[in-house]
Amino acid sequence: MNSRQTLKQFLKRNRLLVAPGCFDGLSARLVEGAGFESAYLSGGAVARSMGMPDIGLVTLSETIERAAQVVRAVQIPVIADADTGYGNAVNLVRTVKEFESVGVAAIHIEDQITPKRCGHLDGKEVIAMEEMEKKLEAALATRSDPDFCIIARTDARGVNGFDDAIRRGKAFAKLG
After folding, report:
1. Are 126 and 155 in contact (CB under 8 A)?
2. Contacts of 5 (CB under 8 A, 6+ apart)
3. Which of 63, 71, 18 is nearest to 42 (CA)?
4. Are 114 and 158 contacting, i.e. CB atoms less than 8 angstroms apart?
5. How many CB atoms lie within 10 A of CB 111?
6. pLDDT tens across 46-72, in order?
7. Strands (DSSP E) found in 68-170
8. Which of 35, 51, 82, 160 is the most buried (most CB within 10 A)?
9. Which residues contact 125 (CB under 8 A, 6 or more apart)?
């Protein structure tokens, strides 16, 4: 069973999957060595490790390079932060191909405008739900491995309130 299939099995269990954040191969090995079943390549942690704030300054190419290093360093599944997909649906097509090619098990995509802000910061803006749905449809259609997971994340709660976040989450889940 490869790491993508392993992650899918973990997600089917009726329990929480803890995937501590990492930002390079060494921190990923520490996550694995501590006994965790999965690691999360944090976009914020990668940005900070480069001396930058998490406001969309790290490029797709820089993140892919880091993702490849992390995947090579560990045997556990790696979930990678793909920010907003680095642009619109067209950009997201390339993003999916690049992350899939370096062996990550899953990516998550945020529904913020580009450039984005760290999800914990004020001043975020989200794109229209319909635009995010189109981005997710493009991402799902692009992946070549059906076991490669595409995870949608919404930042709508901090912008439009809890009800909009729930509405978006349900709509995104319906897409698969």
Report:
1. yes
2. 147
3. 63
4. no
5. 28
6. 999 999 988 888 999 999 999 999 999
7. 78-81, 106-110, 149-153
8. 82
9. 112, 113, 159
